[in-house]
Amino acid sequence: MPVRRWAPLVPLLAVVALLAVPPPHGSSGTGTPADAASAVLVVFCAVRVVRDRARPLSRTAAVVLGLPVLGICTAAVASHDPAASLPGVARYLQVFVLVPAAVVLLVRDRRDFTVVAWAVIGLALVQGAVGVVQYLTGTGASYMGEDVRAVGTFGATDVMGMATAVAYGIVAAAGIALGSPGRRARAWAMACGGLLVVPLVVSFSRGAWIATVMACGLLLTLCGVRRAVRVGLAAGALGVVLVAGLGVGSQLVQERVASISQVTAAPDRSVTDRYTMWAAAAGMWRAEPLTGVGLKGFPHYRDSHASLALSSGSDTAGAGSGFQRQPLLSPHNMYLLVLGEQGLLGLLTVAGSWLALLACALRRLADTRRDGLECALVAVGLLVWQLVDFAYADIGGPATVLTALVLGLAAWWSFAPRPAATTCPAGLRGGPPPSPRPRAPWTPSDTAPGAPPRTVPGPAAAAPPPNRPVTRSGGGGHG
């Protein structure tokens, strides 16, 4: 029985576990073991649905999850090179349609959801531990001339991979700590979330920092404004004591935090390149407003729409890799990437699917009481984190399949059938109304002293025949 109980989750957990395996050297992000496991996950789910007809998607779930297909396929057909767009079609369908739908079909209840959430936290702990060791030993990716940037097992070519996995773990731990009814689960979640803050800091990812703060702040606000204010003040005081009082935190971390407020006054080279690529994506959209330039078309049209401020590429080194010059293949903004490559139709369908998912998750959260609140907070927190982070990053790299799993968890919470009420009157359940309680039969002791006895006809008493006297006990006369 236990083997059969956990068998549907094995493909899901395998995808999460294989994300801890270092990608092959020189991999572009789509040939990793986790991507292969995600393909097996989709095939397994399809075979299971066809064979057992197990839990097909509801109409709302099918519309919301299938909406991106319209924009993706239209942009591929209308592109100047449809053959070059086919890899992009496969990638977008994998991340935003197929894997999320498979997660919705395989996760059966809140216990399954919690198991997958803890698996994500476990992956974050593994990647975070590797990243902290890289920072302390100087074996991470190159940053400001030093090999101190924590990248986990993802390597120097995917500096956002570890930050994304660790941030997912922090948000999932925060949701469990705030909503779980079990004291032990809350304690473990708080401990895991606290440990994961360290690798997130040494990842030097400003976008992940901003998204994590906003997602956790939203979860605290949803659980109570007073609690959010207290936790915010406590976290601020702790940061001041650790950084200003005890001197915890390197100069590189402090400069990175300060650079968040300098993105307009004195931006560094990475911010300048990002602004330039954002402008290039907007220029592509103005050239092809409805369907864009086509999937995978940004690198081809980048130079014709970018200004001279754009550099030739970014430098990567460290974490077991030599010096490499990485070309700038995306604008590092998912919304502008979709707008430039898929046009307004793609943005309305793809981003519209995400917003519809968020609306459904928030609506169900509003109707949720204490039971199951941890699933609601984890799903909403992860989805909000992803939507905020998409303003600073886009899909790409080995960690992209983890984004697909996160979207699937949010979709499951949004569209999963609600549990039946445990206490509900029979009339509200659609059944017959409750029958009235039968009255006790009359006994002689119920009469007052000296009063004539009464007879109460039972349910089987026959009516007296007509024109015949009826004799009452204790008195004469004609009826």
Describe this protein's structure:
It contains 16 helices and 4 strands. It has helices at residues 2-6, 10-18, 33-52, 59-78, 82-106, 110-137, 159-179, 183-201, 206-222, 225-245, 251-259, 269-287, 298-305, 334-366, 373-389, 400-415, and strands spanning 141-143, 146-149, 314-318, 321-326.
- Strand content is under 5%
The coarse silhouette is globular
Helicity, in percent? 55-70%
Helix/strand/pairing category: mainly alpha
Global mean pLDDT: 79
Order of helices and strands: HHHHHHEEHHHHHHHEEHHH
List the helices and strands and how they pair.
Layout: H1 2-6, H2 10-18, H3 33-52, H4 59-78, H5 82-106, H6 110-137, E1 141-143, E2 146-149, H7 159-179, H8 183-201, H9 206-222, H10 225-245, H11 251-259, H12 269-287, H13 298-305, E3 314-318, E4 321-326, H14 334-366, H15 373-389, H16 400-415
Antiparallel strand pairs: 1-2, 3-4
Helix pairs in contact: 2-3, 2-6, 3-5, 4-5, 4-14, 5-16, 6-7, 6-8, 7-8, 7-9, 7-15, 9-10, 9-15, 12-13, 12-14, 14-15, 14-16, 15-16
